[in-house]
Amino acid sequence: MKRLSLYVVAIVAIVAIGMLIMRSGESVAAESVAPENVPTENVTHESVATEPAKPKAYVESGERRLELPAKSDRANAVEMEIRCGDKLNYTALYDTERYASLWVAYEVSSDDMGDVKRPTSWSYNPQLSTSKQVNLCSRSYNDDYSRGHLIPNASRNARREEQEQTFYVTNSVPQIQNGFNGGVWMHLESAVQRYAENESLYVATGVVFEPVGESCEIGYTTAKDDTKRVPVPNYFYKVVLSVERNASGDIVDAEAVGFWFEHRAYSDKYYNYAVSVDKVERLTGFDFFAALPDDVEARAERNTKNFLK
Fold this sequence. Notes:
By secondary structure, the chain is of the alpha+beta class.
């Protein structure tokens, strides 16, 4: 009987110890589970970036912008960024011996165009010595040539400072006024601006004295207030690019067209002189829109259709 009592006592002790262990385990589990009503403000989650991808025109790390031709090593030519503070206004490849920008490249959209009153005078480009520029500040060229803009005033007349930078003398070349600067060339500039009211365009425009592989006679003039001999361009060109992007900002397609003009008076329409960008590249020796993906660039630059109309 005594032995039976000892067994009962042992069994009771074992059960008691087991219950204590179970309760301890439940307490530990309860401490490790967060209550359902814990405030979420202090809970940190890994954030997912929502900022849209930068268009290729604005990529950093030294890549070329969409409107820019590939870098070139033209003799006596300097590439200049014309900036308003941190904002790039336009870029020019300026020939310091011929006193002319071989190309000026820029993006244009509705944000760039407004109704700021046109300036009445021009100014020197502060990036260059005045010895490398022609004094066109108060008056134009001799021989009835106008101070022809390469990037037009009307493509930068939303803000005064940006507009005034189109009146740097480095943005001027001698241009026939009647039938060219005031005619076919002006109408092409207006067509680009109308299209850009609804969609950003990337533009490069410039002059040619001698097309690649050709020899041409070059005429000269002077400015009314300068004695430097200024060569008169034999040809003018403009190339225009429109791009299509996907939701990530990557370029998936593009349209491009070129225009090529002998420097003379015209009585017909600008679009009669639409050519492929490929042709303008062959005549100038520049590689336009080189920042495009290769397959998109090749396809776009074969086009001869004027999409600006």
